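Much of our argument rests on the idea that a fold can be written as discrete symbols. In the encoding step, the backbone of a single protein was reduced to a row of integers, each denoting a local shape. We regard such an encoding as a compact summary of how the chain folds. The record that follows shows the chain in one-letter code together with its fold in token form:
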Amino acid sequence: MDYNTKNIEVMTSTKQGMLDRLRRKNSRRIEYIDVRIEQLTLERDNPNNSEADSKWYNRIIQELNWVKQQTQV
């Protein structure tokens, strides 16, 4: 039997703990991104902003949405 071609992954409690921590960390990142998008949306829609400011906020929101999509992959 060729042992080099057989690769079996065993889920140990240490590996499970590491995966759980990574999931929680990713979840916190997504929550942070959502909060920032909400804050930037409020700033963007502020009637005292110039059109250039509103466009800048919109651009940042678009970038954060892209980061969020990449994080959820």
Observations:
- The helical segments are 13-44, 51-71.
- DSSP finds two helices and no strands in the chain.
- Residues 57 and 67 are 15 Å apart (CA to CA).
- The radius of gyration is 21 Å.
